[in-house]
Amino acid sequence: MKEDEQGSAEPGGAFAEAVAGWVGARIDAAHANPATGLVALAVYAGARRVLGAGIGPRVAGAGVLPRVPRLRAGASHPLVAAMRAHLVGRSVLAIEVRRDAIAVVVGEPKPAEEGGDDESGAEPARAPGARPAPGAERAPGARPGPGAERAPGARPGPGAERAPGARLELAPGRRGEARLFDAAGGLIFRWPPQGGAPPAEVAYPADPLAAGAALVEASDAAAAAQEKAALARAVRARRAALERRAEAVRGDLGRLGSVARLQKTGQLLLAQGARVPRGAARALLDDWETGGTIEVALDPARPAKAQAEAFFARARRYQRGEAVMRARLAETERALEAVAALEADVAAAEARPEALEPLAQRARSLGVSRADLAGVGAAGGAGEPGAAGARGARAARTAPRLPFHAYRSATGVAILVGRGAEDNDALTTKHARPHDLWLHAKGVAGSHVVVPLPKGASCPADVLVDAATLAAHFSDARGEAVCEVSYVQRRYVRKPRGSAPGAVTYDREKVIAVRIEPERLSRLLATKDEG
Hints:
This protein has eleven helices and 19 strands. The chain has helices at 13-19, 78-86, 112-115, 208-254, 259-272, 308-348, 353-365, 387-398, 421-431, 461-473, 518-526, and strands spanning 26-33, 38-44, 48-55, 60-65, 91-97, 102-107, 166-171, 177-181, 187-191, 282-286, 293-297, 404-408, 414-418, 437-441, 449-451, 482-489, 493-494, 505-506, 510-515. Strands 12-13-15-14-16-19 form a six-stranded antiparallel sheet. The chain has a five-stranded antiparallel sheet with strand order 5-6-7-8-9. The protein is elongated. The two termini are 58 Å apart.
């Protein structure tokens, strides 16, 4: 039989002695950080004691922790939920320190007067799942390791008949696992779900207290490093989104240079349109200023001369939208400066929750996706720090693309705007509910806009104006001072079979004539959800 680090023939002799006095104590709390692999059970045995096991991937080993981990999963995590449901509030019947695992057996002790008072010290009734003495019959489902003699303190005291309970087995190691069994030995839950490596002999520490302190510090440090990396990724993604927005606005502003050309084309069409053949898709117009010609694309269904107004209208839209575009560009550039400063601060920050939480708050205020920041800097079980941030970033990359962009009204109501023709169909037919409000700029091509509403609720007037403003902006009426916008309940919108992408029909139409206010539009555009 292999000796442990102290030379004892018992597996984990020092560790077993450290936890021997915990038998009979009540389990007060169960915690885990699955991202690092630290599992902790807190009991009160004269003072608060914490059993810790590192099951990988980032921490491994066993020890008596000086405290519970600061960075840990919330109660909704399945491992934590299972331990709390089956362990917390129950008494420790036995702690088996085996060569391949630590087994904690719990149950409800019966009062001594009910279970009998055995002064002879004979073996008491054993809780299902508790490990029997050598040579005795094994409880169903028990999995002792090789040479798994009873650790000191594992045997219940005399006269303490136990009610059936559960058993938690922790196999420390870089690829270890946690297994929770019911009273009959049936497997309730295991983490990781796919199981760990084959059982290996545990290297129990000679100094359980020092080992426990190292375990919890290593777990918190690894989780904080993951949080910092997740925060850095989220801020980087926000900066990239703002850079794309700035580039798009600069592209819009670049079209202002075409205003003179559009006006000139309209004037030439007015003057020369009469000699353009009806049904022509293109026309060559004499450029009186340069002596050359200008080729113009036309709508064959309309007389060329009548199309001159379309060129004048487009020129007016570009001119009227200039103030909004320049204001949005300035706002985006200011946000870019703030995000760049935040990115530098994150890079220089220490990987500690108290240092990361203020940075996460700054990131939220700058529009960083909350999904990417879930749990960052939060201690005490508010989420699954470290893993949550990384998982949020991965989810953001792998989540299905939504067919809409989300904006917010001044009161925080969501307004969904289709991203393209096929996206409009998906937004209207798959995402909008029958009682939601549906809007579209009247008589022109544009995005479908949906305001999600509670069933039976009507849309507040200010939200209606905000949604109509977005419907006008994301349409061919962009830049017009006033735009008519149709709105109906989604239940009255239909997608005709075989119709073009984005084409719909609707009944019970109401119309609002919305005057485009640059301040309102800028406020709405600034609320775009980049997550």
